């Protein structure tokens, strides 16, 4: 399928601007990672521990009124989210990030929340649908396991990259993969989205998707290097490879993006953050393969020629 015809776009003319943008976003990602590690980010109860109550009111109610009522009963730090697009109207998620070690003590938190709601809204019954409880010890264990899962996955990806490509390509692909994960993490942090197990799953999925896109571009670059070797035009070989793959990249990214948008808008609040991270990740992964990974190789070759006696700057 051919979306665009043969192109001859100079993707490296504005690479310094692209690097500036990527650098700023990566720094935000690093800052958000530090905040997550020290426990200052908006962590889900999976990681922070706490109690999550989901239920529906019989009558419509404003989120601000519900928040004020719970604050008056000692739950000023409660996180309240209206569940939109569900089958039951007036449904809310109420989360309190303070919990005991489990069992009856945690259950009392849910009971206290229900009692406070009944007290503040006696004429608007609240029907509880589910309760999720995670003690702080379990939350800390899940956080440690999630960090190990991310680390193991990235190590596995790096091993594959270093086997598949030569040193310079491997370094560029490695930087690109970390770049994409950090940028999406920073994006979720800026939007004040909750960092949950689903978001971690989205980051791992993104790492694999980004790597696949980068590998396809790099394979095409290696093919072009054989054709351009006699001309000694490294920049032309890389730029030509990206132009050759542009239609394929657009089709792949666009169809993937559409699929993720369906999940984002039609599959409910439970997977919304997962889909949000992936939708932005698809865009960043496509961008980074062209404006991060490939320009790193070009800049490296310009500064330290390896494949040709002469290169075009």
Total of helices = 9
Shape: elongated
Low-confidence stretches: 100-107, 309-313
**Whole-number average pLDDT?**
81
Largest sheet geometry? 4 strands, antiparallel
The level of helicity is 55-70%
Beta strands, count? 4
- Terminal-residue CA separation: 33 Å
Characteristics of this structure?
single chain, alpha+beta, four-stranded antiparallel beta sheet, elongated, 9 helices, 4 strands, 313 residues, disordered C terminus
Overview of this protein structure:
- The structure is a single chain.
- With 313 residues, this protein is α+β, with helices and mostly antiparallel strands.
- A 4-stranded antiparallel beta sheet has the order 2-3-1-4.
- A hairpin with a 7-residue loop joins β2 and β3.
- The C terminus is likely disordered.
Outline the secondary-structure elements:
Blueprint: H1 15-37, H2 45-48, E1 50-57, H3 63-72, E2 79-83, E3 91-96, H4 104-120, E4 126-134, H5 136-164, H6 167-190, H7 197-228, H8 234-266, H9 272-303
Antiparallel strand pairs: 1-3, 1-4, 2-3
Helix pairs in contact: 1-6, 5-6, 5-7, 6-7, 6-9, 7-8, 7-9, 8-9
Short description:
By secondary structure, this protein is an alpha+beta fold.
